[in-house]
Amino acid sequence: MSICLTSHEQPGRGRLPRIKVLAVGGTIAGKGTDASRTTQYEAGVIGIGQLLEAVPQLNRLAEISSAQVANIPSFSVTGDLWLRLASRVNEELADEDCDGIVITHGTDTLEETAYFLHLTVKSSKPVVVTGAMRPATALSADGPLNLYNAVALAADPDARGRGVLITLNDAIGSARDMSKRHTSTADAFGQRDYGLLGWLVDGVPRYYYDSVRRHTIQTEFEVSSLGSLPRVDMLYGHGDGARELVEAAVAAGAAGIVHAGMGNGGMFPDTREALAEAVARGVVVVSASRTGSGVVTAKPADRLGRFVTPDNLNPHKARVLLMLALTRTADPGLIQAMYDIY
Ligand code: SIN
Fold it and tell me: Could you tell me what percent of the chain has a pLDDT over 70?
């Protein structure tokens, strides 16, 4: 007699995987007054208990426990919350009874939180970040299926070692490369330069690629003892730029500045001059691109040691890495080496 195992029955383990769901808020926990108006609602309102109860099918996938870490719209996240979340994830994963983590989060800054965890989690167990583009009260709310898929992914032993994963709308992406690229559609997340890592079909993950950049247990970032993160400000490049915003960032105590430049890192001359002066005062400046795609290459002046380039990270992910890099060193050469491997 042949025995058929579904993907979630694990031979030799004799139990369902144990998954911890950590809730941070966002639209997945959002509530509106009119189900047909999918952009009119308050994010970060409904508690994780209620969100889990709405998807009883989760109990077929895993033994679930949960905790409400915060309940906020994700445009309110802070570096302190990232530190708290990373510590919590590391603590949970150190428990041998925990097989994986799901984080429910607002989509606006989901990719930044996911990338922060990708660089700071010290475990190979699956960590999956998900959210929703439509509030829980909307027609065709996408949160329940995204949550189901996230638990299925976190419960899958084959998800181990792939770094922090993001799933929305059936897609599986790497926290390094997946980004929000639409204001409101359910398929808002994708990877512009590369393919997705895979897809979930009927709640079963199918993988096709991996990110080869270092993450989780391969990084040098240890945040458990940090009280705060260094201040890194971001400036958006445009023609007719000025030096005053750079000076304001330096005066406010920025240890780093990410400039989201035009094209391949282009800077308005006055802005460029002010940024070079900031570098001379010990501020690390990353010359990123506002295009949303492609590698920023160093210019001849940058090779004299002025600006660091972020490889192909978008400006907000470049900011995450710069905050972490500055916990290790303020040497632009060493920080450049980090952008080249992470
Ligand atoms: C948020 O990021 O909290 C609001 C938007 C969303 O979750 O889709």
Answer: 95
**Which residue of 71, 75, 189 sits with most ligand 1 atoms within 8 Å of its CB, as the best mutation to test the pocket?**
75
User: Is there a catalytic annotation at residue 113?
Assistant: no
Q: Which one of the listed residues 27, 38, 104, 130 is annotated catalytic?
A: 27
Report angle CA 144, 139, 204 to the nearest 5 degrees. 30
Longest CA–CA separation in the chain, Å: 77
153 CA distance to ligand 1 centroid (A)?
22
- Please check whether residue 152 lies inside any domain of the structure: yes
C-beta of 73 in contact with ligand 1 (< 6 A): yes
pTM assigned to the model: 0.95
Measured CA distances, 171 to 82, 204, 253 (Å): 24, 11, 40
Q: Is the CB of 135 under 6 A from ligand 1?
A: no
CATH number where 292 lies: 3.40.50.40
As a whole number, mean pLDDT of residues 74-103 equals: 98
